[in-house]
Amino acid sequence: MSSPRSYAAVDLGASSGRVMVGRVGPDSLELTEAHRFPNRPVRVPEGLRWDVLALYAGVLEGLRAAGQVDSVGLDSWAVDYGLLDGDGALLGNPVHYRDARTEGIAEKVWAALPAAELYARTGLQYAPFNTLYQLAAARSSAQFAHAERLLLIPDLLSYWLTGEQGTELTNASTTQLIDPRTRDWSYEVADRLGIDLGLFAPLRRPGDPAGVLRPEVLAETGLTGPVPVTAVGSHDTASAVAAVPADGERFAYICTGTWSLAGLELTAPVLTEESRAANFTNELGLDGTVRYLRNIMGLWLLQECVRAWGEPELGGLLREAAGVPALRSVVDAGDAAFLAPGRMPERIAEACRASGQPVPRTPGEITRCILDSLALAHRRAVAEAQRLADHPVDTVYVVGGGTRNALLCQLTADACGLPVVAGPTEAAALGNVLVQARTHGLVGDLAGMRRLLVDTQPLTRYAPRGGTARWEAAEARLTTR
Fold first, then answer.
1. What 3-state class would DSSP assign to 10?
2. Which of 117, 197, 219, 298 is the most buried (most CB within 10 A)?
3. What is the dihedral of CA 42, 43, 45, 48, to 10 degrees?
4. Alpha-carbon distances of 162 from 153, 180, 209, 217, 343, rounded to whole Å
5. Catalytic one among 11, 155, 236, 372?
6. Known catalytic membership, residue 236
7. What's the pLDDT tens digit per position in 393-440?
8. Are 223 and 232 in contact (CB under 8 A)?
């Protein structure tokens, strides 16, 4: 029987990064945190930027803290990228997806390739920050003129660790340049829009080798080489969905964190006009799967409010919110009006006022409005995904940071009228680790990975309460205003 092995999962979220160590055996899976560090974007005169050098320093420090491992895998948020010159040097800090540079860009893209045709070819939802629109916005910049290579964020960090370049497929599928049917570049879309796919490094897939740590990295981290880097589902949502502890196919998932990604795991994309109008996306997952989901603003709404309130203790806020009457006021948690940072409590209050609802005023009232609104958005996404994909579900699985929020999990069960299974919290890191372990033969297929999660990870179950009529009434407030 194979002995346990250790794997480092570098998991970068929009507000923090972490290096986790997974120890995996045929019947065991343990995850420990080696190092956690903040991810603080910086606003400079030209706009909002990621501090990617600080992130890389956090990765190196995390690998040093992790100790000797059998492999390293990296995942992060999607769509953003770094540009390299002909010598492989980074041309400036990567632009943050919340930067305003893509305002009005989509309409220019659609003039060359109508939105309906673009969706039929790529299956990607409209979001103003999709890589495609970022590229269109960057085309006239001096940086872009000097760029010889484009690397998505986890691929950029992998390149710095190994010296080898690649474009991992699950993250590439968020660029709006991949055909989800062929799981390859959409050359026609790129040609129509004048995008040179030669900017991208060759595609690689979860489980593919991505190089070995450079000697300089070994010296910096104290590791003994060779230490391979393994391509994982480098979009953190792809890794998180791989770690959904589901049995069978009749399930929905909600990956919670700064964003809520709510949807289904399918074997083929849904490319209908009705799906486009509902703004569902078809991103690629492990083993030929499609992540059919909708992006919802997520706990970003609460994170921004907490920041505006001076970082009060979250537990106290949630206790106060639990005492506020349910569904008193709700907002559309998918509204792009909440995308930018700043003034979030005031913006939520303004949205309630504009829709004729009671205006939440205290932190507890605003927190309850956010949680009710997120549960309502989860309900809407799960119901519409089932209908559009003709794929009924029996259970909703909540993974990621939101699993720590028992009130949100219970409200999601109530709103959906379905049982919710919450956990694991570090789903993206676990999915990252399991793909690495699979390359060493310690786990089997995707179903086998999920069985191991069910057997080893703590899960909490929430039964729906009170019927769904009140949620239907709350939704009507948003759809009829």
1. strand
2. 298
3. 100
4. 14, 29, 11, 8, 41
5. 236
6. yes
7. 999 999 999 999 999 999 999 999 999 999 999 999 999 999 999 999
8. no
